[in-house]
Amino acid sequence: MKKMTRIIYISAFFAVCALPLVLKPFAGDNGEIEKRELTPLPYLIKEEGGINNDFSTQFESYTNDRLPLRAELLAAAGYIKGELLHAPVSNVICGSDGWLFFNDEKKDYMNTNALSDRDVKAVAVTLSLIQEQVRANGGRFTFVPMPNKSSVYGEYMPACYRKADENNLSRISDALRAAGVNFVDMQQIMTEQKQLGLYHKRDTHWNYMGALIGYNAIMDSLGAAHQTYDGVNYVKKTNWRGDLDKLLYPSGGFLDEQYYFQIEYDPFRIVTPPGVSDPLAQLAVFMSDKEENDVRIAAQSLGSPQNDKLYMVRDSFGRALLPFMIDNYRSSQFVRTDTPDLTQAQNGTDMVYEIVERNLGSVVGKTPFMFAPERDAAAFAAEDSGETANLALQNAGYANIITGTLPDNAALTDARVYIRLQNGSETRVFEAFPISEPVDGEQPEGDGFTAYLNPQLGLAGDYTASIITGNRIYGAGQINFS
Fold first, then answer.
1. H-type helices in 297-336, by residue range?
2. Which of 57, 130, 294, 370 is the most exposed place for a label (fewest CB within 10 A)?
3. pLDDT, tens digit, 9 for 90 and up, residues 147-179
């Protein structure tokens, strides 16, 4: 009897192991489920000749990508590890009551990714310069730091994660207030109304109810007249496939609730991408989980909105705001980028800069395209530090780009950096962004700065350059504007 039991057990074991190979001829392609390009079939002989020494590794990847029941096995593993054992899996943290969180959120939640004091100040300075430019062009500006889901619904996070008293979002918010930057305290707004259920349980983003509340807060922050859509009817449908759920269950999973408002928006047309014949259908695609061709969207209202032009820098959270914003601006442009282009915010254009909490550091990751504001040279009285700063000039045609780094012991009291150029009796001062730009693909060491100078300023010939920061002057040598 024991022998027969062993035979059955061993036979079953090998049958299960062989099942994927047996099903291989009948298996479909996993490309749609994986949402990536699958590993191609490798060749033993390279195209340029010689043996492919990586053939075995590449063939293993090729086979694994096309393994029958792969998605089902991944889903089963996700359910056991995540839902039952509450262990992180596939970049997903499984919380209580069916709540899922993006794994990267834990860094902000526990404050293990704290920005330096200098970077926090640099974020505030960068946004203050953008705000200054928008207002100088006759527009209104607001910054929208969107809190991570765990920052609003932290009670559903696993107990092993300890919430910190402060993090990048709270520190940057304090710095923005000190710098006079207009921003939406979305953390407070979402927390105060969280009982309405403003984020998806199984997605990283807010739902449409959260987006409606956020839209009104943004427009209030701008001081822009707008429709509030108060008392609008809605229906709730359990039909939303969350991005976190898809990570956990590639071949299926659990649907989430979504709010659908019964709003009759004014007619509009999609300008970008071109050739859209059905704007409502295209808008539905933009707002779905597909995120297709949504890097740059431009629309024109055919109604009579109370506001003129909008330039919105956004991430994936901004998708749910599209219908409200389009309905309240004559023309609107939405660009999914970390690098604002201030040439798009001219002639009375309002600007909204939205970014999720976990990516706040990218505000100072790359310099916005904006000409450096010129300051009154007579207003600067600083003492010579006796030290030098590194500085380089690139004549790029569209701008003269000055980049550089400061000595390690430079006193960046408020992270403001000024470039002084002297040529005989001429002295001109420009404020730079406190952002380091890579040089030849490598990030320079030390606190950096970048300034785009308008080529129409009339700068020509040799100038003696110096950097002023923290009420101290750092020599920077000679530069030539040819």
1. 322-328
2. 57
3. 999 999 999 999 999 999 999 999 999 999 999
